[in-house]
């Protein structure tokens, strides 16, 4: 018998009064997937996550998590989550919170190992209120994994983290997936989603715009990103240049055809150094996708 999908959302609509936060959303996630959920502010990401954690129920449609109702405690115990705001008890120490939260789960993870993985070992005796914002964030994600959940839902887990802390968190998330875990993660740092997620779901105005592998989403945009050093002001006006940003002599531009652009630089005798060509990024794809739909709604 095949097991049910970890997440099974079918034709879900969620309204808040007049406000349509989710509009006929259908989404399934299989065990072991790491899916990035993207969308501009107000797109409906947090609302979708609140349906999966069982905090809200859909206005219509069905939401199943691990084959059960996400509002059922038996389902919730197998789901770890971190909301955007983490309310840790200020006066409790890290190890006390770990002990307290562990007791809620039948088969908790090894706390020392988990804290080590999140770079929190040196902070176990510190009160939560004395942790920095970034440390609290990392701790909240560690707590989401403490019950060995089958699914973790991470809403903006790395907001406010410095680059080292972000890498620590990425490694911990990847380790969790390597052990068979399933992850749905939202982030405004698209390079983070590009690095972590094998699949991307983009929502906007409550609707799923795209649901595909990260590679396929990036490949939809037919642009190259070119960086070079040049003082020449004519660059911005070349027909092969779609958009250009300049900081002093450091220029980054988008072009549909990097080869044609390079030929143009040479024939126009434009002086340049340190030319680097890279493919499009997830950020480029996202900007193009959401720009395409902006006109439909305004
Ligand atoms: N409790 C609520 N009452 C009324 N409207 C709400 C409520 N929660 C969300 N909304 C509305 O639903 C829509 C989707 O909001 P949601 O918070 O899910 O978006 P989001 O994609 O998570 O945005 P962000 O990236 O800013 O966190 C928005 O229009 C928002 O104003």
TrEMBL record:
The lineage of its organism: Bacteria, Bacillati, Actinomycetota, Actinomycetes, Propionibacteriales. It holds the Pfam family ABC_tran. It comes from Aeromicrobium camelliae. It is a peripheral membrane protein. The keyword Transport applies. This is ABC transporter ATP-binding protein. GO terms for biological process: response to antibiotic. It is found in: Cell membrane. GO terms for molecular function: ATP binding; ATP hydrolysis activity.
């Amino acid at each position: 018998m095949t097991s049910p999908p970890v997440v099974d959302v079918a034709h879900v609509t969620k309204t808040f009064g007049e406000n349509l936060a989710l509009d006929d959303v259908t989404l399934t996630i299989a065990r072991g997937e790491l899916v990035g959920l993207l969308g501009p502010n107000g797109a409906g990401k947090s609302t979708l996550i609140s349906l999966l954690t069982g905090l809200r129920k859909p206005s219509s449609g069905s939401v199943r998590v691990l084959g059960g109702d996400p509002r059922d405690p038996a389902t919730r115990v197998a789901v770890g989550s971190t909301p955007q705001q983490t309310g840790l008890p200020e006066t409790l120490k890290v190890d006390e919170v770990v002990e307290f939260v562990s007791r809620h789960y039948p088969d908790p993870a090894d706390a020392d190992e988990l804290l080590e993985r999140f770079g929190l070992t040196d902070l176990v005796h510190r009160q939560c209120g004395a942790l920095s914002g970034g440390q609290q964030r990392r701790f909240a994600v560690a707590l989401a994994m403490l019950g060995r959940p089958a699914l973790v839902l991470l809403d903006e887990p790395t907001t406010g983290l410095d680059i080292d802390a972000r890498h620590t968190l990425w490694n911990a998330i990847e380790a969790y997936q390597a052990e068979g875990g399933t992850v749905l993660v939202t982030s405004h740092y698209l390079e983070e989603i590009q690095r972590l997620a094998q699949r991307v779901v983009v929502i906007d105005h409550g609707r799923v715009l795209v649901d595909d592998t990260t590679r396929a989403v990036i490949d939809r945009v037919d642009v190259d990103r070119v960086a070079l050093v040049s003082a020449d002001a004519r660059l911005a006006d070349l027909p092969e240049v779609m958009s250009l940003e300049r900081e002093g002599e450091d220029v980054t531009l988008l072009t549909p055809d990097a080869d044609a652009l390079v030929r143009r630089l040479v024939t126009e005798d434009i002086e340049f150094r340190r030319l680097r060509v890279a493919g499009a990024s997830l950020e480029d794809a996202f900007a193009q996708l959401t720009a395409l739909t902006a006109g439909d709604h305004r």
